[in-house]
Design goal:
This protein is α+β, with helices and mostly antiparallel strands. The chain has two helices and five strands, in the order αββαβββ. Strands 1, 2, 3, 4 and 5 form a five-stranded antiparallel sheet that branches.
């Protein structure tokens, strides 16, 4: 082996760990991006008998259905249970998404945003197929 060949081999070996680390970072970032997420936000100053905005954002792998309900009694485990006592919003979402709904509560006190991200193949207001939830308790002043 000539001196040139040895130098090239040594440089290639030095680069191998750097390339491996870069590939692992890419794989990790891709895996994290593939997770279904859901976050609900409500204003801290919501007033009775006045409209307020409910903001939702997250990530959906493929197409999913986003259900959002407002419920004074607290959140049920599924959209089916929640729909028995409340009506809400329904959106189809995919990838990074942001949605907003409007709430209006007739009296002050504790209220809840009940949000569910569900597989697209599930029936309307399903009992199964839930991939992410976010339940937020807030005060109506």
């Amino acid at each position: 082996m000539s001196g040139r060949t040895t130098a090239r081999s040594t440089r290639a070996l030095r680069r191998a760990p750097l390339i491996a680390v870069a590939l692992l970072a890419i794989v990790a970032a891709t895996a994290l991006a593939a997770v279904n997420t859901l976050h609900a936000h409500v204003p801290s100053n919501a007033q009775a008998n006045q409209n307020y905005k409910i903001k939702l954002h997250g990530h959906a792998t493929g197409t999913k259905v986003l259900y959002v309900f407002l419920d004074y009694a607290g959140c049920r485990q599924t959209p089916a249970g929640e729909h028995q006592r409340a009506n809400g919003y329904i959106w189809r979402v995919s990838g990074d998404y942001t949605e907003a709904g409007v709430g209006n509560s007739p009296h002050s006190g504790t209220n809840h945003v009940c949000a569910y991200l569900v597989k697209n193949s599930a029936p309307k207001n399903p009992r199964t197929g839930i991939v992410a939830t976010d339940f937020v308790t807030f005060t109506i002043h």
